[in-house]
């Protein structure tokens, strides 16, 4: 039988492959996560995440300038407190590391969009994402505390807030609090679909946010569930979310694709610490080509339907894409 069409015709030459490529990565697709620590001159390497450090504000500013120079549009800030307590009170303090970092970034690196993670886990002595009542996380009691954290970031000058706690109703509570204080134009990027994943281990080292007891399966999503993801996202849309995030990314590309097909809002995906650490570790062993696997993984996330990708590879990818 004579072949009528040969798909390989469009694969033989590199230039032609590039011309018909369906999915394209851009530096504008990436958001770079950064960890802000109290103090001065702090640059603490995170062992499980090569190339990632906890940074005091002065050191973070240096790296943020590098981020902006690479053409990356945004950073996502996570904070570490000087002192933890049962209610995570430092999370909403105007003197907190994140609030200080936001003010300095907006003044000294104005080209960067500054997004702030809204959660209590890194600030509470128990390591959970909400307030504890009767030995478990009290959803409704946590909403006001989370809204106050978001407000403190807005007052510091954040361009966007990103609640990651997975309390029911937190997007609505934050939206209402922001609107009442004149921040009705501040967008919310909701961690709408955040799974109780085993891929978060290195992040918990970086943010010092491992729970002191139990786990987070009572409020983060069951990895076995897909239909529930659409329900979670729909609730956040109703409550006023502007961007919907799926976390983690690669193990949940089916969920990214479902949200992209169902909702008109921009979809973000978080390539989490465990995904990053696996690629780095395999590359250090010589088992994988780091650059090739990094770009392939990011392309897969984009191909699945993500408009934005939160990734610790953002600087590396941006440097390659600029060439």
Account of the protein in words:
The protein has helices spanning 14-19, 57-69, 97-108, 139-156, 170-180, 201-207, 227-239, 253-262, 273-284, 290-304, 314-322; strands at residues 30-36, 43-45, 53-55, 74-79, 113-118, 132-133, 136-137, 160-163, 189-194, 243-247, 267-271, 308-311. By secondary structure, it is α/β, with parallel strands linked by helices. It has a single domain (24-322), classed as TIM Barrel. The strands form 2 sheets. Strands 1, 2, 3, 4, 5, 8, 9, 10, 11 and 12 form a 10-stranded mixed sheet that branches. A hairpin with a 2-residue loop joins strand 6 (132-133) and strand 7 (136-137). The longest helix is centred in the middle third of the chain and has 18 residues, at 139-156.
Give the low-pLDDT segments: none
**CATH class assignment:** Alpha Beta
Helical content class: 25-40%
Given the C-alpha coordinates, what overall shape results? globular
How many alpha or pi helices? Answer: 11
Report the radius of gyration as a whole number of Å: 20 Å
Domain count, please report it. Answer: 1
Largest sheet: 10 strands, mixed
The total beta strand count reads: 12
Order of helices and strands: HEEEHEHEEEHEHEHHEHEHHEH
